[in-house]
Write a structure and sequence with these properties.
By secondary structure, the protein is of the alpha+beta class. It is about 30% helix and about 25% strand. It has 3 domains: about 1-25 and about 150-185 and about 190-200 and about 370-424; about 30-145, Adenine-n6-DNA-methyltransferase TaqI, Chain A, domain 2 (Alpha-Beta Complex); about 220-365, Alpha-Beta Complex (Adenine-n6-DNA-methyltransferase TaqI, Chain A, domain 2). The strands form 9 sheets. A 5-stranded mixed sheet has the order 5-7-6-11-8, with no helix packed on it. A 4-stranded antiparallel sheet has the order 4-12-9-10, covered by helices on one side. Strand 22 and strand 23 (about 300) form a beta hairpin. Helix 1 (about 115-120) packs across helix 3 (about 150-195) and helix 3 (about 150-195) packs antiparallel against helix 8 (about 370-410). The protein is elongated, with a radius of gyration of 28 Å.
Amino acid sequence: MSFPRYPKYKPSGVEWLGDVPEGWVVCAPKRRIKSAAGGTLIKGMCSDEFSEGLFPGFSASGQNVWLEEYAYDCPAIVLSAVGARCGKAFKADGQWGVVANTHCLFPLPNSDRDYLWYLTNQEDWWEKGGSAQPFVKVSETMARPWVFPPFPEQTAIAEFLDRETGKIDGLVAEQRRLMELLKEKRQAVISHAVTKGLNPHAPMKPSGIEWLGDVPEHWKINSIRHILDAIGDVDHFMPESVENGVPYLMTGDLKEFVSDVSLDDCKQVSRNDYLQLSKRIKSSKGDVIMARYATIGTSMYVDIDVEFLVSYSCVTLKTNHSKVSGLYLFHYMKSDAFRQGVENQINTNTQGNVGIKDLQHVKIAVAPVAEQTVIAKFLDADLAKFDTLTAEAQRAIDLLQERRTALISAAVTGQIDVRQHPKN
């Protein structure tokens, strides 16, 4: 949908603002917004859970704490001023307070709070500094020139954006629900194929494992250690980074396949460290890698010949090819049955993790090798369809969010005239 421009524009007198609608005022935001630094986090004054008598508190990540006392009783905006979400703004209503790394923005009588929220919630509107710990330069942003419409027009723009962004948000939510359904269906296809097989008429037998249920009669139930040639991890020390070296993958770097990983963007270690660390086990094509800390059970298949290391938070599994193929094992490790087996082995005394010895005892259903090949090919083809649909849904979300951002920017800077836009 296209929107008309204002009938008349005038030079703003500011190079980067360009022409602005006639009747809009160019001035520093501090003439429209009163700002104040947020509070400090006081131990004993905050709670993560709501109980009677507490008030909503805003932190740098949003409304995620409850306070014993409130500081304000008026509509305002709370800005995340420091950290990963710096530049994100939240609406504050009723009785509320703020904690560390925030800034409070109060609209003056000539400003509409909801209009200002759309304006200030654009992260690129804020002047920022810092690198390792980014922060908003509030005073500089408040002092630079900006353009503001008359008060009634601010209200009209905010109401327009509420309606239009609400429609876009609804469409985004639909696409996200679709992605969740695709994810659930994808998971169900994997779990069924590697525990029930592809032949719906195959005779079944009890597996003897509660979460595995019945399996095809000709399949075997084995502990993982019986189908592997080796299982292990690298030495438990963190090597230093170098500018150019061998990629060192953390759990957060794991993808479905090694070929999906941007190895140049991973931590790099020296060749000497690589040779030293890979003495116990070296990941190679055909292996499966599994995270055993943090995102426990996340697995990756080594589908290419390339030198790399995985950290000691991961384990490398080398299959006995006469019993199981690496690709089949990779698919099996994506199943609900495997995840349940791993869950039973997790040590939760300190940090949740699964030890190598415990992992060796996880039981799995093993089809004959020839049948494994057929199942793996089926899954490769079928999962590619789910991945395509998921990628299409994500592209739709990206386009909708780009349109949302562009619409807000155009409306609050006067590039489009929404005053006469119908309300339905």
